[in-house]
């Protein structure tokens, strides 16, 4: 290679390397950005999932707090109203023990007995019945309305159990009012301790309905008041068939009894709806109160928000990922195009072999490796004999066909993947053989001659054996400079041309005394060749 072109070729070689390395470097950076463009939306999805989870937890915490507050308000109202009635009953029991009560004026006696009962809400009838169940005193009228309650369960319970205390009956229809009530009652003892009757007060179930109706719990919400034996006193929303029903065997009620108060999520045996139950016992009374909220309605507001937010985030993230992938695809296409341009920049378009630029890059790398490893590097410079005749006699199309055939022969003659055949000029080729001594390079040259000998172009009347090449061979030891390797191989090629062509001539090594051809021709700098 000539010094006049060397600087230009080195610059071109550097540009070629940069052209090949540039796409790879930009592609790696682009892949990083694409990965970030995909991972960032995934991170947003994860963050949104955490946020939606927190919103769901907030919805449940709100439902729990609402249930506890409602439970507390309702429990206090019921306990206070029942306490007022019970205090009235206890007052009547105490008043009945006063001496001279039977001799008092009936109206004064009624006032003395029932003066505390006026503050209770929705109280129906307050009566005192004797040991036979007949009314003897009535809070509403004098004389008392006649009715017998000896068949009532609460009457029989007090009669059988002197120490029973306050009794709250299951729902029943009042014989005086004709409407559903629950009866609160206490036992009356005679001076000798025997059964003397019952003092009773009926509490209208409408009281519970009015209390529960003021609270909105949604379509699946419910409020229930039970006796400890599982009998339902009242339910909201009210269903007539539910009043008086017993659910003692239901898992939910078993949990009500097992814990004094608490909350849990369970499925109702009544309608199969899953609800969140908050429950408590009403003071010291044999009553169990629960407020139930439908889990579907607890999460309804959250679900609507979650769907809206989730869809928006999914759309945005999907668009981001899609755009990132499309961007990545375009970058890959661009990188592929640049890589193809880089390949074409280092490829001879006619023969498909590496061109002069690519050869110089490979030569520089092989020379460095040879010096570093102290291994030989062989070079063959090959020129088609009398090539100008083919162009002049048959035209450039035939000349191109000959060059293509020569390129194929060179490629087929190489045995190792690191060996490189390149077109470095019009009809001039070079073969770079790393880690190859003179004998090995000579064998490759022989293989090239043999392959070329079989080339033919029948359409142009060129038979096998008509096409020949001259080869200049030079070897540089690893511990010696490789800068003049091409010069020496080129000089050997001149000798092969002047010696009759169709042969290989070897350039002598630096330590050799006698060259294989006249040294004056081998050591002189090669001149530009015109035609061979």
UniProtKB/TrEMBL annotation:
<feature type="transmembrane region" description="Helical">
    <location>
        <begin position="306"/>
        <end position="327"/>
    </location>
</feature>
<dbReference type="InterPro" id="IPR054327">
    <property type="entry name" value="His-kinase-like_sensor"/>
</dbReference>
<dbReference type="GO" id="GO:0005886">
    <property type="term" value="C:plasma membrane"/>
</dbReference>
<keyword id="KW-0812">Transmembrane</keyword>
<dbReference type="GO" id="GO:0052621">
    <property type="term" value="F:diguanylate cyclase activity"/>
</dbReference>
<dbReference type="InterPro" id="IPR029787">
    <property type="entry name" value="Nucleotide_cyclase"/>
</dbReference>
<keyword id="KW-1133">Transmembrane helix</keyword>
<dbReference type="Pfam" id="PF00990">
    <property type="entry name" value="GGDEF"/>
</dbReference>
<dbReference type="GO" id="GO:1902201">
    <property type="term" value="P:negative regulation of bacterial-type flagellum-dependent cell motility"/>
</dbReference>
<dbReference type="Pfam" id="PF22588">
    <property type="entry name" value="dCache_1_like"/>
</dbReference>
<dbReference type="InterPro" id="IPR043128">
    <property type="entry name" value="Rev_trsase/Diguanyl_cyclase"/>
</dbReference>
<dbReference type="InterPro" id="IPR000160">
    <property type="entry name" value="GGDEF_dom"/>
</dbReference>
<dbReference type="GO" id="GO:0043709">
    <property type="term" value="P:cell adhesion involved in single-species biofilm formation"/>
</dbReference>
<feature type="domain" description="GGDEF">
    <location>
        <begin position="375"/>
        <end position="509"/>
    </location>
</feature>
<feature type="region of interest" description="Disordered">
    <location>
        <begin position="505"/>
        <end position="532"/>
    </location>
</feature>
<protein>
    <recommendedName>
        <fullName>diguanylate cyclase</fullName>
        <ecNumber>2.7.7.65</ecNumber>
    </recommendedName>
</protein>
<dbReference type="InterPro" id="IPR050469">
    <property type="entry name" value="Diguanylate_Cyclase"/>
</dbReference>
<feature type="transmembrane region" description="Helical">
    <location>
        <begin position="33"/>
        <end position="53"/>
    </location>
</feature>
<keyword id="KW-0472">Membrane</keyword>
